[in-house]
Amino acid sequence: MKASQEIVTIRLSEMKDAAQLMELDHLVWNRNTAPEPLHWTSREQFLLHCPPGSQLVAACEDILCGYVGFRSPSGLASHRHVMELNIAVHPSYQRQGIGLQLIEAAKELASGEGIAKLRLRVLSSNLAALSLYRACGFREEGRLVREFYVDGRYVDDIWMCCFL
User: Fold this and answer.
1) What is the pLDDT of residue 124?
2) 125 assigned to some structural domain
3) Sheet holding 139-150, edge to edge
4) Closest by alpha carbon to 142, among 125, 157, 129, 126?
5) Distances in Å between the alpha carbon of 20 and those of 57, 105, 127, 134?
6) Is residue 25 part of a domain?
7) Torsion over CA: 156, 119, 79, 57 (sign)
8) Nearest to 66 by CA among 5, 126, 20
9) How do strand 8-12 and strand 63-71 relate by DSSP bridges?
10) CATH number reported for the structural domain that contains residue 72 in this entry
């Protein structure tokens, strides 16, 4: 699988994407990228947390090779200028620019909705993700030191942001 040789289309998620997005979460969110692996128990559970239109997906033909989820961090009117992101790229498509394309698309979407700040969280052990986020203009805003104990070691929870 090589996205660099294929055309990558970025679009809003649709109901038909649920199964591939659930599989993508299963592949990406493991002990190196999350405090606990992510496993959806049902399609209904997934759709409750990730309804259609709550993610931008990167598609190479009919294969979803990544997504960036976005949501408001709270229901407060005073918090509407902030959008929280979570991003996943299929292991076979990593390091091909898809993460960068997804974040740039999320920035465009957010700007169009009047969002002034993007934020995300990443484990200090996830060096590849940290590098991507820095390359996309995110900076460390806060760090919860030794927040998680994963596979016999403490890991920091890093909060990053990008102002639009």
Assistant:
1) 96
2) no
3) 8-12, 55-60, 63-71, 82-89, 117-123, 153-163, 139-150
4) 157
5) 10, 20, 25, 28
6) yes
7) negative
8) 20
9) unpaired
10) 3.40.630.30
Alpha helices (H) along the chain: 18-28, 43-49, 98-112, 127-135
Residue 83 in contact with residue 110, Cβ under 8 Å? yes
DSSP state of 123: E
pLDDT of residue 148: 97
- Cβ(57)–Cβ(13) below 8 Å: yes
Residue 92 lies in a domain: yes
Residue type, 19: A
Q: Is residue 129 part of a domain?
A: no
Looking at residue 31, its pLDDT comes to 86
Q: 10-residue block means of pLDDT along the chain (164 residues)?
A: 70 97 95 90 96 97 95 95 97 95 98 97 96 98 97 96 98
For 35, the domain range is 3-119
Q: For residue 5, what pLDDT is reported? A: 59
Burial (Cβ within 10 Å: 0-12, 13-18, ≥19) of residue 98 = buried
Full-model pTM = 0.92
Q: How many domains does the chain have?
A: 1
